[in-house]
Amino acid sequence: MLPALLVWSLPLLFVIHDAEEVLFLPSWLRRNRGLLVRRVPSAMRRVVLALPDLPRRVFAAMAGEELALLLLVAALASGADLIHPWLALYLAFGVHLLLHVGQCLVVRCWLPVVASS
User: Fold this and answer.
1) Which Pfam families does its entry note (predicted)?
2) What does pTM read for this prediction?
3) What pLDDT is stored for residue 77 in this prediction?
């Protein structure tokens, strides 16, 4: 059985990370548009440049859906000792961290969402 603190830290850290993305990433992307145009590979450029135009409420709704899933899986891991779905999500968020680190390497600067991921 996983310790409750560990199980429930995943949804908490997710909320902190996604709040940072909602609050700070769009303005950072707008301010650094020129840098992104120069450094982001052309295959990814269109998506990256469109992100600041995504309404915050849409991003927040997507994050809310993920949070609901995380809370359900954390409750199952904590109450019913079903740890495999929790471990799968933990691994997925570990990959998410590596993607943010990879983004830093591609852009060659620190992104505001890396520390909380």
Assistant:
1) HXXEE
2) 0.85
3) 95
